[in-house]
Write a structure and sequence with these properties.
This protein has helices at residues 15-21, 28-37, 62-77, 93-105, 116-129, 140-159, 169-181, 196-207, 220-229, 240-243, 263-269, 304-320, 322-342, 346-369, 376-406, 410-421, and strands spanning 3-9, 41-48, 52-59, 89-92, 188-192, 212-217, 233-236, 249-252, 278-282, 299-303. The protein is an alpha/beta fold. The protein has three domains: 3-164, Beta Polymerase, domain 2 (2-Layer Sandwich), CATH 3.30.460; 169-315, 3-Layer(aba) Sandwich (Rossmann fold); 340-433, no CATH class. 38% of the residues are buried.
Length: 434
Amino acid sequence: MPFAVVGLNHRTAPIEIRERFAFASTEVTDALAHVLEGKGVAEAALISTCNRTEFYLHLTDPDEAIPRVIKTLAAQAGELPKPAERYLYIKHGPEAVEHLFRVSSGLDSMVLGEVQVQGQVRDAYEAARGLTGTRQAVRAVFNRLFQSALSVGGRVRNETRLSEGAASIASAAVELARKIFGSLGGRRGMVLGAGDMGELTLQCLVDEGVASVMVASRNMVRAQRVAEKYGGESVPFADFWNWLPETDILITSTAAPHAMITLEEFRRRMPGKLKSPLFVVDIAIPRDVEPAIGDLPNVFLYSIDDLEHIVTANFERRKAELPKAETIIDEEVGKFWRWYSGLRAVPFIRHLREQAETVRQTELDRALSQLNHLSEADRRRVERLSRDLLKKLLHQPTSRMRAAAEDGREHDILETARFLFGIEEDGAGEDAAK
């Protein structure tokens, strides 16, 4: 089969293993160049995110290429608890094309319907296109493949409700914040504790336009790292009360064994009634914020249970959209595969047209040499007539040849046509599309 994907994702390996296989953005070009240096790979692209590392390959010799790609992945990962092959999957042919389309559509994501993954596919495509020189990573076939994958992702999002509603705790928090504030542009956020979930929620808020962020944690090294990542400011944990009156959105995710924000302390530290809404997302277990604080005027308090209810409801709705998404993907895989299969007829069609054009030109020259009395305008009319006749004569056989190739019936038909027209076989069809 001419296509393959070799890689791993959140289903085949835990995060501590996936991290070992991941390629930094600065390493992608070298990894692709290395894969293309050997035999058997015509085109390649690499998707590497926190949830997956996958080489997509257009192959001329699978037996030569795939073991080398596995070695490349194993070398990147280094020493592992198990052999690298135990974490990897290999998909071939239409199954590999379908896999890419599912990835781009958010069907193969940890969060069903995730929208960020389409941008990751686009980034991988652009990075591969950036590899120039004698070993280009992307030529005609992968151009068509990845453009189709991005188009499929767009169709799934436009024609289904797969991406509607919160699909994760972080996106549920953002959805609620938008209901309270409308636009989040210009709002001020604070994360208390800076755990992984808190950071992810903070990232979603920043993506929605929160103007400034503050990070308070007992681990000041982590607080500084998270703050710098999102263009914010880190403060000592003990000082967070000083900044809370200026905060619109508070995310708490500490590992404290008891509530860090009690009703009594809140009333003492936040004098008078709040004049503007305070949105509090408590995703800590046990909870960081006493529930009674949510009863205060202008305080909107949500726990991780509240967010999980939203995620669950939206997930059930998303699952109902899966059949529609699967139908779109099946349709687009078939469309791409028919296009690719049709390339097998291209060399024959090209040679047939070249041979016919040689005959046309020869006979035209012979005829015109005996028609010296014709004006220049008449000579052009004769030439145009010969071209039009040739075009009409070749239209039906070449169209049917393409259709036969798309349907997988090209072998016997091509052999017969080559015999009838005296045209020898000429390499792989996809070469004609370069």
